[in-house]
Every structure is written in C-alpha cells, then in structure tokens.
Amino acid sequence: xxxxxxxxxxxxxxxxxxxxxxxxxxxxxxxxxxxxxxxxxxxxxxxxxxxxxxxxxxxxxxxxxxxxxxxxxxxxxxxxxxxxxxxxxxxxxxxxxxxxxxxxxxxxxxxxxxxxxxxxxxxxxxxxxxxxxxxxxxxxxxxxxxxxxxxxxxxxxxxxxxxxxxxxxxxxxxxxxxxxxxxxxxxxxxxxxxxxxxxxxxxxxxxxxxxxxxxxxxxxxxxxxxxxxxxxxxxxxxxxxxxxxxxxxxxxxxxxxxxxxxxxxxxxxxxxxxxxxxxxxx
Length: 282
Hints:
Blueprint: E1 2-5, H1 17-25, E2 28-31, H2 34-43, E3 50-52, H3 58-70, E4 75-78, H4 91-99, E5 104-107, H5 112-120, E6 127-132, H6 137-147, E7 153-158, H7 163-173, E8 178-183, E9 191-196, H8 197-207, E10 214-218, H9 223-235, H10 240-249, H11 254-265, H12 269-280
Parallel strand pairs: 1-4, 1-5, 2-3, 2-4, 6-7
Antiparallel strand pairs: 7-10, 8-9, 8-10
C-alpha cells in the first residue's frame, strides 16, 4: 500500500487517530525533511524508519518506492505540512502506483488551501488554486492577467518576505476586488485580514515584515468585470504576429512595439524585436 498522509499545518493536535495509526504501521516513512517529520513522530512517540524524499530526489526514488509497494510493504509519504501533492511532492508517486495498478490510499489531513478559503469569508462556490506566483514583478503581473477571467476565488501561497510585493501586484491587477491575507493557520497567532486589494496592500506595507507562511485569497470577478474582460479579449490580437502587424500599421516605433509585444505575450525582448524587424520587411 502507498499511503499519502496529511499532517498538521501548525497545531499538532490536528493529527487524527487515523493519521497516527497509519504512520505507526508504515514499514518506511518517506518525507521532505527528516528533521521536520522527526519532531512530529517524537510528539506522538512513533518510531518508524525515515527516508528523505523531497522534490530534488523524488524522481530518482519512484522506481524503488514502487518496487517496495509491489513487494507488499506499506510505504507512507508525508510532506513537511499539509496534504502531499498539493503544492508539495507526492504526485509522481501516486501517478506511478496507479499506472502499475497498486493500491493507493489518502489519509485526510489539514490543507492550508481550504482552511484559508473558509477563514476568508469570501465567496468560494468556485475557486482556483495557483500556488506560488512568479517572483519577478513583470512575470507576476502577466500571470495575474491570465488568471483575471477565472470565474471564482483565486488562492495563492506566499512567503512572509514577499507577500507585500505580491499584494501590490494583486492590487494593480484587481483594484476593485476584496482580498484576504490569512497567516499562521491553526497556530496561536492565526490571523485573517481582508480589505479591498489596494487597502490591504497598504496595510501590509505599513505593518512591515510579517511572520508565518501566508495564504492570499482573492475574490472572484463580478459580472461587470467578466464582461469587460471578455470585451478586451475579443479586441486583443490573437498572436504576436498579429500584434506586430497592427502596431506597424499604426506607426508604432519598432523598439516600443517590441517591448509591448514582449510584455503582452511573455516573449524575450530580443525575440520580440527580431519578430518586429522580420515582419516590417514584408
């Protein structure tokens, strides 16, 4: 059996009896960091062999792990916190075990995604989990623009060191939407702060650096915003080539056009400029 085990995201009391029974009965426990998981096991007096299996090595471990399961061992897998496979390692093992027809079980546990959604109080009939946004401001803005038409709440993970920059980008992309910042989930100082995006971004800037891992929940688009996005999409060029031809016809300078096309379609500036020069010769 391959067991994917959800572990506490802060409060160790959230470990269910089934989680603890599964960890105790494992022949081997695979984990991201043996030190982190070792503390969890020590808290409950559990002794099982631990082996590192983080994102850097999991691809190399798949074959041997599947062989163990096929041989009749109970192999349990945990991430440092939360549900394995959700923005954490684990998916590759499940995929390989399913392909081989081997038994897989999921032992439910806390998830920062669903906890933050509930804590936010924002509408969540539909939601989209993005995970971490790009670190660079330009790439982050482009990704947020791509996510704008998603008809539901958006959920992001972020570190306390970068959350202010991320909230600034969200305020620029979604100025009218409400946003919730949820941090230190299930811990003593759990907090949920929410406001219209610009107000929340300013508040976090004024407070300075925060502590604890953060989850950001962005309210889904309203009917008017979706209609506006639809109109913009129908009027926008469908390809870099189309955008370049339109820009050249309008007399936009080549260097400015290249920057615009690179930003819109996520191209390198040199690649965009070469395209502009090539099409200008037609």
